[in-house]
Every structure is written in C-alpha cells, then in structure tokens.
Write a structure and sequence with these properties.
By secondary structure, this protein is an all-alpha fold. The chain has 2 domains: 33 residues, no CATH class; 240 residues, no CATH class. 62% of the residues lie in helices and 1% in strands. The protein has 9 helices and 2 strands; from the N terminus they run H-H-E-E-H-H-H-H-H-H-H. Helix 4 runs parallel beside helix 6 and helix 6 packs antiparallel against helix 7. The longest helix has 35 residues. It is globular, with a radius of gyration of 22 Å. The N terminus is likely disordered.
C-alpha cells in the first residue's frame, strides 16, 4: 500500500498517519498549499482583527439602560438635556470617543483592502466595490430601506441598547455633534463593516469554498461580534447577514447592504439620542 501524501485531505485522516513530525508538517503545510493559502489569510486576519476590534474600549454610556435618562458627564456635570448645545467638547476628545468607529475603518476597511491589492493582487471591484447593477441596487433599497428605518427607530425604545450605542456618546451633546457622528458612522464604520464581511470575507472565500459556505462564515463571524448586545439585535444580525450576503451576489456589490445596514444603525442612534432628551 502506498502512503498517502494528499495535502488536501478533507477529513483529517492524513494527519493520523506517519510520524508525529511528518504529520505536524503536513498539518501546517495544508493551511498554505494551493487555494488554501488565500482562505487561511482571510480567516486568520479576520479572527485576529475582529477580536482586537471587539476589545477596543467602549465610551461612557449616553443614558442609563434601566431608566433611559441621560447620564453623560461633561466636565463633572451630568448633561441634563441632550442636543441642547449647552456643553462643548474638544475635537480630539470627540474623535477619541469615536474610537470604535475609526478603528473599524482601519481594521475592517483599509487593511483588508491593502491585502486584496498587495497580497492577493486582485481588483477591489471583485470584492464588492463596484457599481455594476444600479437598477438592482435601487430596487432592493426601495424595498428594504423603509423596513430598516422603522426597525431602527423602534429599537430606540429598548433601553438595553444604551449599553452598547451610540458608539460615541458625545454625539448627544449637540446637533452638530450628532451630524458629524452620523457622517463618520455612515462612511467610515458601515462601509468598512460591509466591505469586511460581505466583500473581503464572503466574496474572498466564495472563490475557494463556494457561495453558501462563504455566506455562512461571514454570518457566524458578524453575529459573534454582537454577543453581549440585546438578543433581538443578535438574532437580527443572523437574518441581516444572510439577506445582505444574498444581495451582494444579486447586485454584484456591497452598496445595497451598506445603505440598508447604515440606515438601520443610524436610525437606532438617532432614536436613542432623542429618547434620552
């Protein structure tokens, strides 16, 4: 009987054969051989990067998750009425409080894009950053945007969301602060999130694993980042991940999911801020 040396073994039987050193060598080599190399790079980066982002320290809460009353403190004074503009904040402090947003931009946006361009030597257009089917994008947005607007606004009545959102509690200081927060949230956070999960992970893995496994992997990873959030959001993340994963294949881009996901999150933040007034 000839000894097996197929490094694409699918059930792990190869690693049971031979000496320990040979088995261990084959095990490590299997991660980087052929098409497995790209899969390994994507998933290894994802697990380390997303773990790091999850542990980026949150900002102080805007409101008490039990009562819904504002508890944000500025210069030792609790903000009595959000958005009244009576308090100001230094731009650097505002930016520091937005660390969950801009860190996502680098971790989920800039670095994966660099991996695609300079490691894989592929086009960003192949990872969802291309406007190929504007009619399908517009149709899906017109159908789903009202649903996500209502869902996001209604979720603001659930006080438990104050444990997590808004990522930058200083957004509640004034209308200009809320508008700047909204812009950062829309362009830096949600665009990077959609590129990471539905572009880099899903479209990257679909090339080696197939469409269905790629969708479910990004759904699992994105859902895990929602652990500790209200259960309604965590369960909704599963449905949203599957829907937006489908729309990426349907529209050949991440733009439809980006618009819908961003509207959902922004509506929630606005609802939370206004209800804390």
């Amino acid at each position: 009987m000839t000894e097996r040396n197929d490094l694409d073994d699918t059930n792990g039987a190869l690693f049971y054969e031979g000496t320990f050193l040979r088995s261990a060598f084959c095990y490590v080599l299997a991660f980087v051989k052929g098409k497995n190399l790209k899969t390994t790079i994507i998933l290894l980066y994802a697990v380390f990067a997303l773990t790091f982002w999850k542990y980026v320290p949150p900002t102080p809460k805007l409101a008490d998750p039990e009562t819904g009353r504002c508890v944000l403190t500025i210069d030792g004074q609790t903000l009595v009425k959000p958005l009244d503009g009576s308090s100001s904040v230094a731009p650097l402090l505002f930016l520091w409080n937005a660390r969950k947003i801009w860190s996502a931009f680098f971790i989920m946006g800039v670095v994966p894009a660099c991996v695609v361009k300079f490691v894989f030597h592929e086009r960003l257009a192949d990872y969802g950053l291309f406007l190929k089917s504007p009619k399908r994008i517009a149709t899906s947005c017109l159908f789903f945007l009202p649903l996500f607007l209502i869902t996001g606004w209604a979720s603001g009545y659930v006080k438990g969301f104050y444990n997590v959102y808004p990522f930058n509690s200083l957004a509640g200081l004034s209308w200009p602060c809320l508008l700047v927060h909204t812009a950062l949230y829309f362009f830096l956070y949600y665009l990077s999130w959609e590129f990471m999960f539905r572009g880099f992970i899903q479209l990257g893995l679909a090339q080696t694993l197939g469409a269905a496994p790629a969708v479910m992997i990004q759904v699992v990873l994105s859902t895990m980042l929602h652990y500790g959030h209200p259960i309604t959001e965590t369960l909704g993340c599963i449905a949203g991940g599957i829907l937006w994963g489908y729309l990426v294949f349907r529209t050949k881009s991440i733009w439809s999911g980006w618009a819908q996901h961003a509207l959902l999150g922004i509506a929630l933040d606005w609802s939370l801020v206004l209800h804390a007034c």
